[in-house]
Amino acid sequence: MHSAATGTIIGFDGQVLQVQPAEPAAAWTGQQPQQQQRQAAPSSTYSSIAEALAAAADGDTVQLLPGTHIISQVCLDVDKRVLIEGLGSQPQQVLLDHRANHPAFNITRCCILCNFAVDMVGFCEALAVSSASCIKPILRQLHISCSGDDCVSVGGCAQPLLQQCTIQARRCGIKQHASSSTTLWNCTISGGTHGLVVCGSSQAFLEGCKVEDCGQDGIVVLQQAGLHLTHSSVRSCKGPAVDVADAGTASLKHVDIEDCCGGVWLWQRANCEAVS
Known about the structure:
By secondary structure, the protein is mainly β. The protein has 2 helices and 28 strands. The longest helix has 7 residues, at 49-55.
């Protein structure tokens, strides 16, 4: 929610910490700039996102200036109620370059991440969201790509909301398990083996979303998980659009399925309700 007077997101009225991008030479090699090479800067300006998060407190805002930010050496633990926002006019103008075999972000608290791109090169998910408690982080206007694994992993009792995100993975766009619940509004998931895998007793709610160009099934529902797909589309997948197995359930309302190897496949005790 935004303030009508200032246009800022309500609930983050603490200090503002700005993060400078890497120098072009460091961005090209994927190396974090050396701390001693940083020029003198105000106390609210940092050379890395990790530094800014370490200095932040609940209610603070971490602003990412346009350019390339190198985060390969660390996993960014978001365990504070902070707003992390890119200051570009579009997500791709603030690029987080992550080359490692651990997540770029490990989210364990309610927070907001918005308006930047994450380019993940490595054999691990780009973003991990999990907590034993019911956290509800918001991921808005993010462009997330992962060349070696899943893009987003959701577990525990986490209940993230993704809005207007673009997700491109090597394996799964989003994989969720345990008793988590994920809501997606106006998101696009493309490429990879599957667009979305829902298992355990988790629930996935998609509205106004696109799942397309998957190497196998578009959406997979397993075990006791549930899928709720509304005003969305699944297109150009080499497997079925929606594959439900075990005791999984699916609810499809006003869903377009085109150019997939089958529409909805049900196995074992699976159940599906569909409304055109």
